[in-house]
Design brief:
Shape: globular
Strand content: 5-15%
Radius of gyration: 14 Å
Structural class: mainly alpha
Length: 65
């Protein structure tokens, strides 16, 4: 992650969004090394990991093949 870009984003977020919580983002990847498993296998269970994400941690959702 570009630390300078991150810091600039956080400053602007606080300025324009009045210290609101940061947004939750999603992306697809085959790399599981940068996150911890959420322990969910179905889309309907994906919300169980939101609390972990709101604490600032990354999670990955496993697909049941």
């Amino acid at each position: 992650m570009d630390i300078e870009l991150r810091d600039k984003f956080l400053i602007l977020w606080k300025k324009y969004f009045n210290h609101a919580e940061l947004p939750v983002t999603f992306y697809f990847s085959d790399d599981e090394t940068s996150a911890e498993p959420a322990g969910v296998y179905h889309c309907r269970d994906a919300l169980s990991g939101v609390g972990t994400v709101r604490e600032g941690k990354s999670i990955y959702l496993m697909r049941n093949l």
